[in-house]
Every structure is written in structure tokens, then in C-alpha cells.
Amino acid sequence: MTSPSAHSAHAASPFVGTDVCEEAGLQLPAGADRVFFDDDLWDFTDVIGLPVQMPLSARRFDFATIESPDWRLVAKELVMAILAPRHPVVAPLPRAYRTALHLWTCAGRLAELSRFFRWLDARGVTSLGQVNTECCEAYLWHRRYVLDENGTVVGSQSPATRRAAAMIPVDLVNYRELFTADQPAADLIPWGGATPSAVAEMPNGRDENKTQPVEDGVLQPMLAAALYLLTAFSPHAITLAEQMREADRLGARKSRNIRRAEGRKKDRAQDPEPKITALLAEHRQTIDPLTLLPDHHVTERITKGWSKHDPLVNISLDLLARRAGFSHFSPRWLPALRGPLEETLALVGAEREFGRNAVAVTVAAGDTTVPWTSPLHRQQAVALVGIVRTAAVIVLAAASGMRSGELMELEVDCRRSEEPAPGLIRYRLVSKVVKGQGLGGIVDEWVVIEPAYRAAELIERLHPAPAEEASLLGRFAFDVRYRWFRNWVNSEAGARLGLAPIPDGLVNLRRLRRTLALEMAYRPGGVLATKIHLKHIVVATTEGYSSRPGGAQAELLAEVNKLEGDRNLNLVLAEFHNYQQGVLPSGPGARSLTEFFAGIDAKLEPKAAAAPKTQRSDRDVLNLLTKRAKTLHLGPANYCWFTDPSRALCLKLAGTPTADRPLVGMCDSARCPQATHHPCHRPVWAEHAERTEIFLGQLGTTRKAERTRLQTDYDRALRVVAEIDAANTTDEESA
Of 420, 459, 552, 614, which has fewest CB within 10 angstroms of its CB? Predict the structure, then answer.
């Protein structure tokens, strides 16, 4: 412990001798080392309830990185104050935080505070009393930009980084009366009292989410490869992982659990030749190849004096010895065993240890089959299992919308399933919500679709030690794992399986969640829907919200609903502009929609406005269109304007005339009075007409009923295409 006598020139800190965890309300397991204020290293690694996502480096507060003893004490007092705001000397401070900050937040504050003190040292500042507004501005400028080794600006830091930098002078001023070793000047008011968020120009949260979705060109091959590995590789990857665990257990029994000295004594006491010769005879009888050494071990042998032309230079002799019951292969045995070894090698050959006689699988793009893997060394087998595991994580994240922290809180045996009706299975995953919650988080359940459930099952089966309550995924760096996954898909291994290469593009868990929300709201027929049944995801997310209205899926559904509302407004505005340019809708509901647009257009005319003000901006137009936008539902080949449930053809056919939403899957847009067709729907109808024409040409003369039905569909599709084309012709084009 650090003695407070180093600061004898100042008043003793009120926190001297304080148990930090006890004062801050942090729980430690029995027998764990306590954390005391006087220590220069506060180790919170064992604190109960810390999120799995929190790295170990953020759990250890190292104050020794601050050289000045006085500033080191200031840092301790500040961190102690924001951890324990109800302490008797902290609570009376007028600008102190009233709620304890999370340990992770405190770790970030300490890191920025240490950086600020180092910056002051470099400028020759020796006391906080010397810090003025110009100094605060200079530090913010220093942290605002990214500089190269020559001090040239090459980029800008994020608003969060700028806010963290602006927060330090503000905190030092707010807790000025608490510090016993050094204090800022009494008249220092950083940035004239503006908040750090305002100084850093932080987004206010009301603007559009800045997280971009994964690009379609990246999403399609990535998701296709992940789903292929999840379905085609699952049983084989599980078998491979079990083989590696068995090999590890064998090695542990024969070498790691036996002291090396005792192993040598045991090996000297036994004659190895009979056992190893018998094992070689078994290899010859079963035609089982000997095991090859990895290339780097072969290089080590050659460096130690083996001839590169020796037929045994690349054979794993230690593995052979362990299988025979010895801890290792002694070089003294080689002269006597060289003959049987070379004879066996000539007969059965040598191969890598894992993945031999691999089962054939169908390639991703075609009907041909290939072995699911080529033979692998152990490190290659570990890497391949990791690739399959990453594929499962991609599917789980893309199909569930879980945040990174929620994924990392999943535990072994987190899967739940129930069958509320015969043939109807509901899949759930149990995890914790940690964002915005206290230590320990809140237990929550996610209703997911079957691929996400199967992905969690595969991850559990690949777990090296699947004990109950063990972390399913642990803390992992998705960007690193995705980079390995992409490199593997783009390698010869992926090409052999017919996987399309994945182009460059940023992919992370936040972008996958954003992609899911946008696909559900904007593109029900987009890339994600072609790989995973999007309707099932929508239903699962809605059920998750209904089950736990305040849970994590409620936030995802709220984001989707907001995006869906924005989408509808943009679509209605675009169609209104089309109307103004003479591009009209078609279909049974076209007249009603056109009359509505005409009424809106009349309100925008200056002569029709009773007041001097006219409404011309898109915002004003959107205000007029908002009510109609709420009735818009997207069909696969039409827009449904669900203004009157009693007129909805789909509800009449289903016998549910009082429903509050249309049954888009039952829509017959060529007959429903609330359906319209627009230029964006023409390709769907044209493709349908083309396919129907092909089917008609393939029908035999005896299938009259089928021909009549298809002919009706074909004629209707052509009629819809013609109506869209006719409505799409502007006055200028007609002239």
C-alpha cells in the first residue's frame, strides 16, 4: 500500500484507508483481494456482475502511470468520488454526480485524466492552478485531431473522444473542493460553463442514426457463406472438435499430467520397441497413414541436424510414442526403430492428423460434392472450427439483432423452446441486457427464428468446456474474427466449396443490427430476405416485444417502426412528386389516391390559400401526407392503402373484416379497391408474365383447367404492365 505520508504537506485525503469496493457498493467473492484507496493499482477483476464485454484492461485502474504524486492523489480522489457519490465528503459538493458511474466509464475517465496530466507535463505545467481557459482549449484541440509523427493533421477524432477530453477540465473544476494535494484555480470556468457535449458537438440523439448498414455487395456473399457453413458443416465441425479434445485428453494422460522426470524414468524402465512395433503393425494392417508434422516443426528438426532428405524428418514421432503409452519419443530409440518406421511409412504413407477421410458435402453453387475439408494439422483444425463458430455468430447476430454485449452475456444452456400448438415451435435465447443497466444487468429473453437458435446450439456444441453457466461466447473481437472468416472464404478452401468471394467492406455487430432494422422496415424483399425468411424474423421480434414490452427486442422493434414510418413518408412524398410530374398510379385504388394528391396539391396553390403563408417545403408537404402514410403497407407487387378495413379484399377472403392490418400475403392487387401499382412494381409483373408464358408453353393439351388458370394470370399480368406503362406516360411524352 502507498503511504499517505508522501503528501504530508497537504491535508490528509478523506479517503485514506477506505475500502473502495465497500464504499462504492461493489461486491467481491469470498476470499478475493480487497481494493484500498491507498493502493496505486485498483484491481476490480473479481467484482461480481461486471459485463463479459468489459476487457480486463478496463478492470484494473493503474494510477502509477501518473508521475506526479500530487496528481496521482487527485486522480484517486476524483475516481473515488464518481464511484461513491453518497460518501459524506462528496454528497455536499454542488456539482458532483448524484449517481455512481459504471466501472467501465470510470476506467475511461481515468485513462483520459492520465493523458491530460501527461500532456500538462510535456508543456511544463506543474500545478493545476496554472491551468487556464487557453490551456483547456489547447488540450481540446490536441485531442480533436489525429496527428502524424510530424504533427500534421491527418484526421479528426470522434465526438465521443472530444467529449471525453472536454469532460476532464470540467470534472476537475466540479470536484475542486475535494482535492487535497492540488486544485484548479477558483476562477477557472472551462468553455464559459458550456457542457462537454456541446463543446464536443455531440449529436443530440434526435438526429438519424449514423450507423450505416452492411453494403448489399458484402452482405449477400457473407450471409450466404455463413448460412452454408452453419447447415453443411455443423455435424462435421462438431466431430472435428471432439476429435481434437480427445487428442488433447490423450496427450494430457500421457505427458502433461506426468512430470517430465518421472516420464523419462518410466520410459527408461520399459522397452519401447515391442509396443511401438506393435503399433506400427496395426498401422500397416489398417492402412492408417502416419501423422505428418507441421512445417515449422520440420524446420526445427532440420535446424537441429536432421537431414532434409531423411524420410522420417516430417513424421510426428512423439505422437506415435504417446499412442504407445510413452510421454515422448526419445532420440535413443530411433536407430532400433528406424527400419520398422520406414517400412510402415513406405506402405501406408503419411497424412495430417485431422480431417482424414472427410465426408462429402454438396458445394454451395452447384450439385457436385467434395470432401468437406482436406486433411489438417492441429492448428489448422482449430482455425477451421473457429471459422465455423464465427459463421454461427454472424447468423445469430444478423437474424436476432442482439447487441454485442447481449451476445457476450449468453451462457451455455441459454436455449429455450416451446410448442404452443402442434407443429408451431417458439425459440428463445436467454441473456442479459447490460447497456444502461447496473452491475449484473437484467435477465432478458429474445424470441428468435430457428436459424439463430441453431447457430447458438452449434456454438454450444463447439464450446471447449460446456459447463452450465459458462459463457457461451465469452469476450471476443468480432472485427478480428470476421477478418479471418472473410480471408478463409476468399481462399482456396472457400473456392473449393463454391463460395462467392466477400469484397472489402466494414462489417461489425452494430452494422448487422442496423442492417436488420433497415431490411425489416425498408426492404422486405431485400438481400436479407432472400437468405433468411424476413417475415419469420418480424414475427419473432414482435413476439419478443409482446412477451417483454420493456425488453431489448422492444427497442429493436421501436427502431424498426420508426424506420418504417420514415419509409412510408418518403414513399408517399415520392409518389406525390410523381403525380405533380404527370406520372400517375394505376390499379383499382389509383383514382382514390389521385384525388387525395389533387386535394393536397390544391392546398399548396397560393390562390387557394386563405392566409398569406403558402406551404411549399417538403416538410410542410409531409405534414399533409402523414395521415395517408400511416395507412401504407408494402406488398410484393403493389402498395396497399389500408384506409378502410371494410373495403379490404384480403380481409373479406380471410373472414376477418375487423382486423387492423391487411393480410398482404393474400393480396389480389388487381381487384382490391385499396391497391395501387407504380413504376417500381413493373419489373415484378413483367417477370411474372414471362414465367407464366413459359409455363403455358410447357403444358400438355390435356391440362385444360391448368391452362385456363395460367392464361387468366398471364392476361392479368399483361394488363397490369400495360396500365403501369400508360399511367407512366407524361404529357410531354404523349405530345
Answer: 420
